[in-house]
Amino acid sequence: MMLKSPFPAVKQVFLSFLLTGLCCFVFAAVRKEFQDLDKLYNSGKLDELSANISTLKPVNDEERACLGFYNALLKVKIEDAISAHQWLIEKFPKSPYAQKSLLELGKIFILDRKIEEATLYLRRITSPEIIERFYWLGLCAWWNDDYATAISNCENYLRLAPRGEFAEKSYYLIADCYLEQKKAYSAVATLLKLQNAKLPEMDEQYFYYRLGYAYELSDKPIDAIAAYRKGYEQDPYSQVAYQIEDRILELKSSKPSIDISFLYPYSPLQVTIVQEEQPDTLKPSVTIDSKSSSSSSTKQIEVKQDTPVKLKEKPKEGYWLQAGRFSVESNANRLVINICLLNIPAAYYEDVSGEKKSWVVVCGSFPDRAKAEEAKELLATNNINSFITAY
């Protein structure tokens, strides 16, 4: 039988008084002008921060540790910053600022690819308020190919800060670990959890790029293309869109039946179709002959590639096929090479619309519209979409 304390109310009052006193002591240990240094640093006002530090006069160890921490953050040279943080940790080991310095040293050594040193400093952090250490410990474990530990640390971060600053990165790191372990389905599941988390300010284009790649490695090309398309269409001219293009074309090379026509969002205003043929004014550079054999009927194209691979400007005359528009020049060049292998002359030119550049792949020119149609059919049989235009 458990005996109850005869003074439960007294104990509760005393505990409440003690906790209140401790909170007041911690708050009073660092005056407001010292606490404001954190706001200046986080808002990027480094000149004002430096000026304030030079005028402040600390009266206790906590304020001295505070000044030491922000002085270390302002160091320009990495070596000086490391020395300043290490001095603070040794001088004020019980200070919350020493805990912050441990975190900063961990990040510095990660950037310098000194993963063992970074891990040692991060593991010394005991403050429950520094939750982000779990993400950085996960990153260190990932660098060391310790994927189980990396996943565990990132999951700890997500448990303690499900909508924190490093939540999105933690999901991606977990997905990376699963991909390294050849567990693509688990990577997809992790990324879908990220999508359902609805984090604020999530980079959706990058998310769909990562999701598409995970689907691709899961041997789900249709789902991969769907994800890539959602990402690509958010901003076709971004750096991530360029990466998405590369993945789409790589996937297309292994899965020719996949439809990637969304990469070429042409509008009717971009094309001038000439209804009347004017063969006398055009210089033929391609002839197409249809020949029959006893076994099959095939189309053969006799080519005279009399144009450079990259044109100086948009064609001005003749019948042409427009076969693609890319935001990466190398992708346009790659398609030109593939078309030339089909014995069809091809080239590309740079098109500028406002501040955005793209590279347009064209085939031709052809002596008349009928010949252009035959070449268009041949491209289609090789899963290359195109349309006829006349200049």
Automatic annotation (TrEMBL):
<dbReference type="InterPro" id="IPR019734">
    <property type="entry name" value="TPR_rpt"/>
</dbReference>
<protein>
    <recommendedName>
        <fullName>SPOR domain-containing protein</fullName>
    </recommendedName>
</protein>
<feature type="domain" description="SPOR">
    <location>
        <begin position="313"/>
        <end position="391"/>
    </location>
</feature>
<dbReference type="GO" id="GO:0042834">
    <property type="term" value="F:peptidoglycan binding"/>
</dbReference>
<dbReference type="InterPro" id="IPR011990">
    <property type="entry name" value="TPR-like_helical_dom_sf"/>
</dbReference>
<dbReference type="InterPro" id="IPR036680">
    <property type="entry name" value="SPOR-like_sf"/>
</dbReference>
<dbReference type="Pfam" id="PF05036">
    <property type="entry name" value="SPOR"/>
</dbReference>
<feature type="region of interest" description="Disordered">
    <location>
        <begin position="282"/>
        <end position="306"/>
    </location>
</feature>
<dbReference type="InterPro" id="IPR007730">
    <property type="entry name" value="SPOR-like_dom"/>
</dbReference>
<keyword id="KW-0802">TPR repeat</keyword>
<feature type="repeat" description="TPR">
    <location>
        <begin position="205"/>
        <end position="238"/>
    </location>
</feature>
